[in-house]
From TrEMBL, chain B:
Signal peptide: none annotated. The lineage of its organism: Bacteria, Pseudomonadati, Pseudomonadota, Alphaproteobacteria, Hyphomicrobiales. This is Carbon-monoxide dehydrogenase small subunit. Keywords: 2Fe-2S, Iron, Iron-sulfur, Metal-binding, Oxidoreductase. GO terms for molecular function: 2 iron, 2 sulfur cluster binding; metal ion binding; oxidoreductase activity. PANTHER family: OXIDOREDUCTASE WITH IRON-SULFUR SUBUNIT (PTHR44379). It comes from Pseudovibrio denitrificans. It comes from the Bacteria. Pfam families: Fer2 (PF00111), Fer2_2 (PF01799). Residues 2-78 form the 2Fe-2S ferredoxin-type domain.
Length: 148, 162
């Protein structure tokens, strides 16, 4: 017996556009004068950043801005906040790590964002991001599941 | 810059691109065919899958210039006269999609599967063949069901035509 009303199989109404390639995802949209961002990311698992040089990147075609963590700090933009604060049993607030949107002091994983480039096309943004020179002083890393 | 020309969904087109332009970028940005999705651009997810001269290719992993002179079919080109392709219909009827992001690649991959292996597909084969397509919503079970249902229906259509 096929159910009617409650319990009945219903087909989704939104499927057709997805099945025909007519969905509209963020990456499918273009806006007038839209800029594109590309990130400069850490190449080390653990390192102290000794310098971030954006001079060359700034001069590249189509580049609108090259920003890093120093500017975030200078503009008083705080760290990424944890949306789920849990208090310890004794009522004290949990210890929250200091996560910056763009790290300018110590990177803690490969791929951590250090700088962002905004340009007129994705390709220009990528090229300029590649032209940002970050210098590191490597710090110890754990590469084993056991410590010797 | 290089001029590339190809047939896309039956239409002859051409465009000026930087040499490094990927086929996926060319389809999405130059041709406005945003149904071909880029989930990873490193050949892992299959969201960008299209057919080139009848063969499935990951369009994020080849250059537009490499596709010059070929015939490309994208998700936008498989329904005819507003009628969904049997595979598209089966995905709808079997709830083979949630957010729909992987769906174009899944469908193009599934059609290629039937083209290569015929309509007699069992679950194990379908699962194995879907190795190159990732669904982040993880609705694999219904995707497999949809492909099986479509393959069975295609077999009936073929039989009726004989
Ligand atoms: S975008 Fe091509 S395989 Fe993921
Ligand atoms: S339906 Fe969402 S990724 Fe597959």
């Amino acid at each position: 017996m096929t159910a009617e009303g409650i319990g009945a199989r219903v087909l989704r109404k939104e499927d057709k556009r997805f099945l025909t390639g007519n969905g509209r995802y963020t990456d499918d949209m273009t806006m007038p004068r839209m800029g594109y961002a590309a990130f400069v990311r850490s190449t080390h698992a653990h390192a102290r950043i000794t310098s971030i040089n954006t001079d060359e990147a700034m001069k590249m075609p189509g580049v609108d801005a090259v920003l890093n963590g120093h500017q975030l700090v200078a503009d008083g933009i705080g760290n990424i906040i944890c949306g789920w604060m849990i208090h310890s049993k004794d009522g004290s607030p949990m210890n929250m790590g200091a996560y910056r949107a763009l790290e300018s002091e110590i990177v803690r994983y490969v791929g951590q964002a250090i700088a962002v480039v905004v340009a007129d096309t994705p390709q220009q943004a990528r090229d300029a991001a590649d032209a940002v020179v970050v210098e590191y002083e490597e710090l110890p890393v754990v590469v084993d599941s056991s410590m010797h | 810059m290089t001029t590339v020309s190809m047939t896309v969904n039956g239409k002859q087109i051409s465009g000026e691109v930087e040499d490094r332009t990927l086929l996926s970028t060319f389809l999405r940005e130059n041709q406005g065919l945003t149904g071909t999705h880029v989930g990873c651009d490193t050949s892992q997810c299959g969201a960008c899958l299209v057919h080139m001269d009848g063969k499935a290719v990951k369009s994020c992993s080849m250059l537009a210039v490499q596709a010059s002179g070929s015939a490309v079919t994208t998700i936008e080109g498989i329904s005819q006269n507003g009628q969904l392709h049997i595979m598209q219909k089966a995905f709808k009827e079997n709830h083979g999609l949630q957010c729909g992001f992987c769906t174009p690649g899944m469908i193009m991959s599934a059609i290629d599967m039937v083209n290569r292996l015929g309509t007699d597909l069992d679950e194990k084969t379908i699962r194995h063949e879907l190795e190159g397509n990732i669904c982040r919503c993880t609705g694999y079970h219904n995707i497999v069901k949809a492909i099986k249902a479509a393959a069975d229906e295609m077999a009936e259509v073929l039989e009726a035509a004989e």
